[in-house]
Amino acid sequence: MAQQKSYEEINEKIRRGEAVVVTAEEVIKVVEEKGIKVAAREIDVVTTGTFGPMCSSGAFINFGHSRPRIKMKKVWLNGVEAYTGIAAVDAYIGAGQLPETDPENKVFPGRFSYGGGHVIHDLLAGKEIRLEADAYGTDCYPNKKVDTIITLNDVNDAFIFNPRNAYQNYNCAVNLGDRTLYTYMGILKPQLGNASYSTAGQLSPLLNDPYYKTIGIGTRIFLGGGIGYVAWSGTQHHPNVLRGENGVPMVPAGTLAVIGDLKQMEANWVVGLSYAGYGATLAMGIGIPIPILDEEILLHTVVKDEDIYCPVVDFNEGYPYSKPIDLGFVSVADLKKGKVIIEGKEVITTPQSSYPRARIIAATLKEWISQGKFELTCPVAQLPGADANIEFKSIPDRVPGGNGLNGNRRDR
Amino acid sequence: MKNKIVCYFSAAQSEQPIIYRLVKNYDLIVNILKADINPLKQGYLVMELEGSKEKYKEGLVFLKNLGVIVEPLSEKVVWHDDLCIQCGACASFCPTEALAIDRETMLVSFDDTKCVLCSMCLECCPTRAIILHFDVREAV
Question: For the domain that residue B88 is a member of, what is the CATH number?
Answer without folding.
Answer: 3.30.70.20
